[in-house]
Amino acid sequence: MNTILVGLQWGDEGKGKIIDYLCRDKDIIVRFQGGNNAGHTVVINGNKFVFHLIPSGILREGKICAIGNGTVIDPAVLIEEIKSLSAAHVDVSPENLKISMLAHVIMPYHRLMDALREKNEIRKIGTTKRGIGPCYMDKVSRFGIRIVDLIDPEIFERKLKENLKEKNPLFKKVYGDKGFSFHAIYEEYCKFAKQLKPYACDLVDFFYKEKTKSFLFEGAQGAFLDVDFGTYPYVTSSTTLSTNAISGSGLSFVKADEIIGVTKAYTTRVGEGPFPTELDDATGEYFRKKGKEFGATTGRPRRCGWLDLALLKRSVILNNVTSIVLTKLDILDDLPCIQVCTGYKEKNRSCEGFPIDLARITPVYATMPGWKTNTENIRKYAQLPQEAKNYISAIEEYLGCPVAYVSVGEMRDAIIKKDK
Predict the structure, then answer these.
(1) Is the pTM of this model over 0.85?
(2) Catalytic residue set
(3) For residue 337, what are the β-bridge partners?
(4) Which CATH architecture has domain 104-195?
(5) Domain limits, the chain
């Protein structure tokens, strides 16, 4: 069975842990979009592993992990991730980690461009300043440098010179920055190329030879950071939806048997942009502290709020979700009552359909009783408090989609498989 796993909110839904859980029954795990602006966390026996580019399935023995053509790769970050995992006695070798030759490379000028744009209050959207957007810009403008270019010294030299010839004058004239030295970048990235070359391969050819194996497609970020369907312009620079799993990996000859969407039991967001159910009060701070809501990549505190069912319904439709994973249910344990957004109003009128501009609406809430019971050590669905089961049932009914798994803690085994 082949599975696509995506986030249904603004990212940070806990996908890393769920990928680690689901990949037990998979052969190949594929990351198909995004860059090191994403952070997936897995906790094993008290040891925390934070992934930015490598699929978290690398923690399972006998699995092959792949970074697809739809991603953008910062070589320094990827090499450091390989070294860090190896130091923790995790096997990372060209046999179990494959990198698409067609994936684009993040360069120093991409990171600088990202940072300079974020200084501009008019253009500021709250990026991670990792150079993700500018790298995708070069890809779309047909000016990018791919892994296959990086590992060929002559091609890399030519393409780097072409890029700096265009970009250095831009940095000087527009931003008052001196720009970059060709030789410094060339020497540094040639060293990166030697280290990454063993991992680089034609993923389409590799996948086609392995097409009878079972695949798990790993999405990064979330549906409402999608460059087309998210809260534009406060979005990421790639397509985060399930439909990108195929084009971001080259696996058109493999059929997805299920599409699993991951959502928290409440809502969080990092960066700028509209957030209808955001709580700027003690409850929001409660979510942040108890849920440890700080970015795995940047450490930034996340904005927190109640669960938005109207938002999730849109995500379920956009991703054609077949089942849901509900994470961090245990964070709600101490609350006497819980609110959920069941729709929106604009100028005191109910919105018909889904509003394009979420900044102009106000949420409509329904209130449900809490359970005031510790769920963190529960491993069977029947043992959950009835109020918690009612909360899950209300989510299923509104979304028209079953909840398959419930996560009740950060530990690896803190997952409840819901009875069908």
Answers:
(1) yes
(2) 12, 40
(3) 369
(4) Orthogonal Bundle (1.10)
(5) 3-100+200-259, 104-195, 263-417
